[in-house]
User: Fold these one by one.
Assistant:
Number 1:
Amino acid sequence: EIVMTQSPVTLSVSPGERATLSCRASQTISSDLAWYQQRPGQAPRLLIYGASTRATGIPASFSGSGSGTEFTLAISSLQSEDFAIYFCQQYHNWPLTFGGGTKVDIK
Amino acid sequence: DVQLVESGGGLVQPGGSLRLSCAASGFTFSRYWMQWVRQVPGKGLVWVSRIRTDGSTTMYADSVKGRLTISRDNAKNTLYLQMNSLTAEDTAIYYCARETVVQGNYYMDVWGTGTTVIVSS
């Protein structure tokens, strides 16, 4: 099973600032990575797939990068609705596995 | 609107059974593989199971194999998860999700709101 490790666990950012989240895979997964956002009390929402392709309706303020084992999600200018938990997920091998999440909260 | 709505969660005793349902609307349900993912409140997401469009292929996480069974009724646009021999470790919010494949990328692009299962005596 591929283990996904996210860092940091919590990221405190001021509104309007940039946030950078990291995700590492325990073995190479090419670009088979998705990012999801989960707001409190809500279901996850797909942000990025293929490591860097934004899903339908996702603003350009979200960008993904990386391949192999190291991946990054960047949020260029945090809005109030962006304060949430972010999960990465690999689909290179079964079982699908998720990272433990990064909580982005208001500084 | 594309929508998934789960139901069937609740409180059940250890060793008991429960059947979750996921009603799909707004898209051609029979054309999509479907998944179940669970989440202990405040914790991460864990993939549980997956089913092919016609129900002929199923996959399970090792932790649920032999106890949970995924199925679907395309005529009713409904996905199911039969849960048997439940333990406290099965306590979680259960989400159904639609799987979409684009150029070799598999991702879950539509999620339900979740249904809560609590296994406790």
Number 2:
Amino acid sequence: EIVLTQSPATLSVSPGERGILSCRASQSISNYLAWYQQKPGQAPRLLISGASTRATGVPARFSGSGSGTEFNLTISSLQSADFAVYYCQQYGNWWTFGQGTKVEIK
Amino acid sequence: QITLKESGPTLVKPTQTLTLTCTFSGFSLSTTEVGVGWIRQPPGQAPEWLALIYWDDDKRYSPSLRTRLTITKDTSKNRVVLTMTNMDPVDTATYYCAHRQPRTATSGGFDFWGQGTLVTVSS
């Protein structure tokens, strides 16, 4: 089973600042990685697939990068709506999720 | 547009079998490359993928739970059913069904999700 490790567990950021979230895979998954945003009481929302392709309707301030085993999600200028929990998920070999990064207001 | 909705019991007793139904619209499970998956999320924890069924009836199960899971589809009724046997309190979670994007160089995630249904396992 491919294990995804996200860091940091909590990211404290001021509105307008940039936030960078990391996801490391235990073995290479090419670019078969997705990122999700989840707010309390809601289902996860797909942000990024293919490591870097934004889903329909996702603002351009969200960008994904990486391949192989190292991936990042960058939020260029955090808005109030962006404070949430973010999960990475791989679909190269079955499907597994990381443990999440909580983005909170500093 | 694509919508999915989960239905089933909110409370099950230990050792019982859980049956959940996902009713969807906006796509057909007979279309090539389409898949519907089940994902659960215990309170305060990360999501965990359980099972997925493809348009051609190919099925995939989480290795750690495969002996307890069965996924089936009824294409004519736009439904996918998940059964999980021998339920335990640790299986308490919100259970989601989701539409899986075709896997290409730029897609492959779960792009549409149901609202989820909280299942509590308790005697």
Number 3:
Amino acid sequence: SQQGEEDPQALSIQEGENATMNCSYKTSINNLQWYRQNSGRGLVHLILIRSNEREKHSGRLRVTLDTSKKSSSLLITASRAADTASYFCATDGGAQKLVFGQGTRLTINP
Amino acid sequence: KAGVTQTPRYLIKTRGQQVTLSCSPISGHRSVSWYQQTPGQGLQFLFEYFSETQRNKGNFPGRFSGRQFSNSRSEMNVSTLELGDSALYLCASSSSWQDSPLHFGNGTRLTVT
């Protein structure tokens, strides 16, 4: 079963614009992670935010976490064509190592 | 440091056959997890091995099995293949239990005809 659900399912923006993706989850967590997947490849870890953190930055990435609303957002600033990929949130789902959402497919148009 | 290596990259099998997929984790990583990715179900957790022991198992039938060797390399096996088993099978390794990111291989694309 899916723990995290991303929104929107697909997002298309112009190069240079900011992209925001949201993730909602159902149960309490220790941490939430974001991953990127280029077409037909494996996932690449982007950032991890712990349940006692509210915001975290890594380069052009900004992640927020609201445990009261059980939601997280990933902001990519100044998008580039190379950011075109699918983005997944993942939560530590108890018995399972990580439970992934369905992902947001991001397309950056030149 | 070499990344996670999965072999083969592509595989075509027919219904009823069995298949074995291989995964070599990053050196020093003792945890190996397997995921199935399909367009309809997304990423589904199969199982996780740590020091040759299955530590967690997802909700898949017994046709899906795995093992881990003393060098942390892992294999997964699917017997009596069904059309619905067509998927990208991803292996990931990590260095510890909590707060450790997963490092994924590029997967094995299995097509069952």
Number 4:
Amino acid sequence: NAGVTQTPKFQVLKTGQSMTLQCAQDMNHEYMSWYRQDPGMGLRLIHYSVGAGITDQGEVPNGYNVSRSTTEDFPLRLLSAAPSQTSVYFCASSRGGMNTEAFFGQGTRLTVV
Amino acid sequence: GEDVEQSLFLSVREGDSSVINCTYTDSSSTYLYWYKQEPGAGLQLLTYIFSNMDMKQDQRLTVLLNKKDKHLSLRIADTQTGDSAIYFCARGGDTDKLIFGTGTRLQVFP
């Protein structure tokens, strides 16, 4: 049982490049989400999904796309990377509903130059 | 999460108690959580409190909730160097979304 697995751990992109951050969970959780963590700003919700085929925007969705074709996977796509997207990205999953613990991946540190 | 506020830093001596504070604005929050993030790692749930509770104790951790003032605190008794981390307050409501605070970096010195 690996929990939430994110790849890659580190990535450097040039401005304008696109890439996909991968997230997979093996706990059969319905709810998955992507956050970015920036100094002094805590974690901000980018996109989330309450189940396969259902996604919605969080606080800071611009410049990112998601899809949820399976329960296990929730990739985050950067369409055209910008320096403002330099951040640490965390994927999380939970069973869903109230009072459920969120399990986090180890994070992806992304630098856009 | 602009509606969940925390101070950014706290420094305490080993063996003392630490108190990390959090304020929130959304009174519909049903559950309030404390997560811990160690260096280079993701977040892990420490404890949570339901909005109809005033206090919850779990070993060295005590959570106090003042619903009228929308104020949440986490007290760590006998703070150890291993408690050095970033602590996040988060609120949950009637959806699955968690809204996190800015995080408080706790530094424990000998």
